[in-house]
Amino acid sequence: MKRYVYINDNESSHELYCDNRISNRKYTVLNFLPKNLWEQFSRFMNQYFLLIACLQLWSLITPVNPASTWGPLIFIFAVSASKEAWDDYNRYLSDKKANEKLVWVVRQGIRKHIQAQDIHVGNIVWLRENDEVPCDLVLIGTSDPQGLCYVETAALDGETDLKTRVIPSACMGIDFELLHKIKGVIECPNPDKDITRFDANLRLFPPFIDNDVCPLTIKNTILQSCYLRNTEWACGVAVYTGNETKLGMSRGIPEPKLTAMDAMIDKLTGAIFVFQIVVVMVLGIAGNVWKDTEARKQWYVQYPIEGPWYELLVIPLRFELLCSIMIPISIKVSLDLVKSLYAKFIDWDTEMIDYETGIPSHATNTAISEDLGQVEYIMTDKTGTLTENRMIFRRCCISGVFYGNESGDALKDTKLLNAVAGSSPDVVQFLTVMAICNTVVPIKSKTGAISYKAQSQDEDALVNAAAQLHMVYANKTANILEIRFNGSVIKYEVLEILEFTSDRKRMSVVVKDCQNGKIVLLSKGADEAILPYAYVGQQTRTFIEAVEQYAQLGLRTLCLACRELREDEYQEWSLLFKEASSTLVDREWRIAEVCQRLEHDFEVLGVTAIEDRLQDGVPETIETLRKAGINFWMLTGDKQNTAIQIALSCNFISPEPKGQLLLIDGKTEDEVCRSLERVLLTMRITSSEPKDVAFVVDGWALEIALKHYRKAFTELAILSRTAICCRVTPSQKAQLVELLKSCDYRTLAIGDGGNDVRMIQQADIGVGISGREGLQAARAADYSIGKFRFLKRLILVHGRYSYNRTAFLSQYSFYKSLVICFIQIFFSFISGVSGTSLFNSVSLMAYNVFYTSVPVLVSVLDKDLSEGTVMQHPQILFYCQAGRFTVSLPFLAFFPLLYNRASESEYICWMVWSIFVPCNCCVCDHHTCLCLREK
Amino acid sequence: MDTDRERHRARETAFYLFTQQSLPACKPVLTPGWVIAIFLFMGVIFIPVGLVTLRASHCVVEIVDRYDIDCVPEPSRMDKVSYIQDDSIPKNCSRFMKVHKYMKAPIYIYYQLDNYYQNHRRYVKSRSDKQLLDGQKYHDTSYCQPVESNNNRPIVPCGLIAWSLFNDTFEFIREGAELKVNRKNIAWKSDRGHKFGKNVYPFNFQNGTLIGGGKLNPEIPLSDQEDLIVWMRTSALPSFRKLYGRIEEDLDVDDVVVVNLMNNYNTYSFGGKKKLVLSTSSWLGGKNDFLGHACVFVGCSSLTLAIIFVLLHVKYRRPYGDMSYLPWNRKSFSG
After folding, report:
1. Could you say which residues from 896 to 935 on chain A have a Cβ atom under 8 Å away from some Cβ of chain B?
2. Which reaction does it catalyse (chain A) (predicted)?
3. Which of A181, A292, A353, B24 is 20 to 30 A from A21, comparing alpha carbons?
């Protein structure tokens, strides 16, 4: 399905597509009550309490005043309904604000100021600098003569750097007045939520000269909720509006996560319910038998000889009501209350504030704190999570010469500086690639200093390093790049940018040297994406050595390469590329294929090595958590050697004699299978030895292992406490989390970038690091922290306390309900099994609310051990997790519990009767004080 | 400097401590010394308390006499139900109670009913508190079913409880002279003052075809009908005592009290027992050995535990706070 957007055609699209009214509301005024009630009643517990409350309206069977159930029930419903209503009202207010904002829209050829909600698909919207974009637009004009504009997409993906957007080539050069009258059609796919793709075509109608089909990409769009920056004005055609924008489509309420404890409580509730039914049936039968044998003899009870038809049901139903207190109605409310307090404690914790950025930790999901104390597997990203993600250019190897090996900093290496000063051609070529093979935007401040806006930290490091080596990337105007080198200015025209994708693992630019008109392809990328494509005859051995040597030091390596293109070769390829870029189906794949045709026969120039330092406290954190019995897996997109080096330096794995690394590799199914079996065998043998064994797997082998040898791999995953998965894609990260979850392990995923979002959402607990790669991960996560080292405190202190407190509170809730219920049941046997309530309504309510619920909430401040003790002996967490057994075996845990409760209430009953009954005969005015309820 | 001090003060505030979960707190560490001391202390406290309580309980003199069978004449014993339901037979009966120990006034007179379910649901619910307070002004007597009205006129007091009022009467004679029995102030003051109306008179009571228990004098307001008030405070257990009156004279050892009673109340149809109880009271109330036994038992077991712990402590002494005893450390020692 496609949609055709007719530019500036007011009539045709009105009925077809929705207007720009945004609505995030769940309810309307009319449907609030039924919808909300329906939602609340879809929970088993609520249905149960409603049934009980309804039965209580029948005065023949109700033992207590119906208010004692209706009151709390209505209270609980009112609390959650008003919370929902408040949230929804706030959503309504923010929608309203967005909907009523005034924007400039072209109507009948004239610009008018209208409300944002009246924008229709096909309208031309004008934006000024710093305006928020009201809907998804296809750019058709900007103030920039080259048709560029800059947008900030922080609200969309959390990245704070500016992105360039460009008008489609067909619209290039249309003047300001004409933009009001422009007509045309945009053929675009139906709304979806992919913010990185927009595969569409534009065709302008005559009288425009260029009315060929012109391909559109995401670079030609500005999406809803972005901000226009550094551009005086821009205008665009609305293609998606209202809730059909990319942002609107991706908005959605994620599945609520259920903690192990919640699941346990639900199971326990179910078990108690079954038990209750049994009790009711036994007592009901006993009651009916007693009634027929004994009660008819008791003249003072005046049982009628012939009762109504439902007579047999009356006594069981009475017992059902009496036993309904077995399931504590207050547990949900109390737990919600304390859980939100746990979340607040995390927000408040001053020891988890990142003082560098001033960002405190934050618990987005308030419901799962106690699961933090139950974590068994931590899946961690490497870059930005374990490391700082602050890239610094350290070393390089240019045509076989190593720079920076002695001092550890190539920028201070006199050899390199001399080479630069002497304009050694190899070095100059290398620096040129460093400076221009990228998507960096240089921004000149008023003082003349140049700063760079880069999307990737690596590119930023390279461009800055090149600048320090006197190859300054000075300016970019449209397609013309300006490079200053040793006082001379060199200009390049960018012809094509072959963007980086994680599949290709390299990016290239095709530039034309403005001095001599030569066309050159400049590439940079991972070693395996560049070195195999070197021209026949080039010696790549030194480069391979360099890559290995750098990786051993834990440095990130990139290979730089170039190739001169013939004019006709470029022209021929350019057509293919254009065609591929305008396909609507599988565009990415097609482009990759076309790129492949150009990216070969490289002349490899050299290797760069960039350092990414470990964050503070990472080794200690990993060691502590490891002692607590938590297993670590590192999932990274980086290459194997780098990953292993980082793993070694942060205590992730131990060096040789103590630790052992097992490699799973192979390119074909058979190889992977053999390697997997070998590793599994070693793992089984060594599992009894106190040796740190870890396995290392790369993305390719992982793909095969997950697809064909899932069972073996799962076994390996269970046996292995440590694993390093390198070269994995975001979806493989998520698959690994899924795999461990399916083995019934509690997993925690921690990451910082957009590529970790899926893994974070998949895991039981997602932790995001609000780092330099933007806030995407932190937004998707349940908890966001500033630094990896806070994880220790999050798990050992907050997680453990939350778990203990919730465990106490829920056990106590069941305990107190069972105690009072068993007193009631024992009383039944001495009151002629007739269903008399021992307690009156007020006492019962007071018992549930004031005596046992509110005071116990104070346990939320309880600390069984001091923070220092737990931090010193993280093994304690492992013993706290032992409580987990009750999760899988609720019934085994349940019966001793019941048994204890039963004997306890028996004891209480006995005490009460034995002490007070005879005592009070004389003390309280010579009567039994234990009196029954009066109506 | 200034900001430093301010920050310092902010740190001091209770809220800050609360948010950091570092409010002052203490947690007792149960070292063997503490545990032994606590058990010893409990033993030392509980045993004397128990002994004192037991002594108080033993001081109470109690005479119990079951009369429900003996008061039925020999020939009627085969069919006690028809005997009790036959109004034409006089129901008086004499019992002799021998005082085996000196009894100090006041001596409380109780009647005790066994196997009588005043706590039956049909029974407890069958009353109207509003009517007891407001009389016929209060019309809704649906709670009183099945004894709510007779001949289309409401019954005051309505309900099964009132209808089944206990109606045996007792007279006490010692050495030919009648013992004065004080029958005032046997009900709760709060009941008399606030639950039973001062201007509410029995009406249409026990006029039906089915006569339950005792009748009420229609001239006396409910707040003064103390037998009714006592009866209407229903008992929680199927075996209970209710106060009948007080003898305000001392009884000496070997005194014989003759009780002339009217055996009107029917407990024969359901096999209930009727007993007459004379009892003195101590500072603890009536006779109750349980409390004393319980205290002595708890005290003794605490002492025993204390001794066991002392022995264990002496035998397996070990230093406190030794990390090597932590389970994970121990495990690694053993391999």
Report:
1. 911, 913-915, 917-928, 930-935
2. ATP + H2O + phospholipidSide 1 = ADP + phosphate + phospholipidSide 2
3. A181
Close Cβ partners of B124 (under 8 Å, ≥ 6 residues apart): A836, A932, A933, A934, B118, B161, B234
Complex ipTM: 0.87
Cβ <8 Å between B187 and A925:
yes
* pLDDT at A889 > cutoff 60: no
Catalytic residue among A131, A136, A381, A698: A381
A409-428: average pLDDT: 84
Q: Domain range for residue A488?
A: 393-569+596-613
Name beta bridge partners: A200.
Answer: A216
A636 is annotated as contributing to ligand binding:
yes
How far apart, in Å, do the first and last CA atoms of chain A sit? 70
Phi, psi of A837 (to 5 degrees): -85, 135
Domain match, A398 and A369 both: no
Q: Which of A231, A251, A271 is the last residue of a domain?
A: A251
One domain for residues A529 and A412: yes
A893 has pLDDT over 50:
no
**Catalytic residue status for A381:** yes
> Residue A841 domain-assigned?
no
**B215/B195 Cα distance (integer angstroms):** 20
A578 assigned to some structural domain: no
Q: What are phi and psi of A276, to 5 degrees?
A: -60, -45
Any B CB within 8 A of A421 CB: no
Q: What is the DSSP track for A179-220?
A: GGT--EEEEEEPP-S-TT---EEEEEPTT-S--S-EEE-GGG
Q: Which residues of B touch A933 (CB under 8 A)?
A: 124
Structure tokens at B202: 């029995």
Q: Domain with A604 in it: what CATH number?
A: 3.40.1110.10
Best residue in A300, A306, A865 for a mutation probing chain B (most B CBs within 10 Å): A300
Based on the fold, state whether residues A368 and A408 are members of the same structural domain. Answer: no
Side chain identity at A472, as an amino acid letter? Answer: V
Q: Which residue of B has its CA nearest to A291?
A: B120
Q: Could you report how far apart the first and last alpha carbons of chain B are, in Å?
A: 56
pLDDT band for position B307 (cuts 50, 70, 90): very high
**A750-761 per-residue burial string, b: 16 or more CB within 10 A, e: under 16:** bbbbbbbbbbbb
For residues A686 and A540, state if they share a domain.
no
Closest CA to B279 of B241, B228, B305: B241
Give the 3-state secondary structure of A275-286.
HHHHHHHHHHHH
Q: How many domains does the structure of chain A reveal?
A: 3
List the domain boundaries for chain B: 29-60+286-317, 61-281
A426 and A377 belong to one structural domain: no
Distance from C-alpha of A224 to C-alpha of A243, rounded to nearest angstrom: 10
Chain B residue with minimum CA distance to A304: B146
Give the domain CATH number at A627: 3.40.50.1000
Q: Which of A350, A911, A922 sits opposite B20 (nearest CB)?
A: A350
Q: Would you give the DSSP letter of residue A886?
A: H
Q: Which tens digit of pLDDT belongs to each residue from A103-122? A: 888 887 788 888 888 888 88
In a domain, A399, yes or no: yes
As a whole number of angstroms, the distance between CA B48 and CA A642 comes to: 77
Residues in chain A within 8 Å Cβ distance of B123: 300-301
Q: Which of B120, B160, B189 sits opposite A295 (nearest CB)?
A: B120
Q: Each residue of A219-237: pLDDT tens digit?
A: 888 888 788 877 888 888 8
Q: Specify if A304 maps to a domain.
A: no
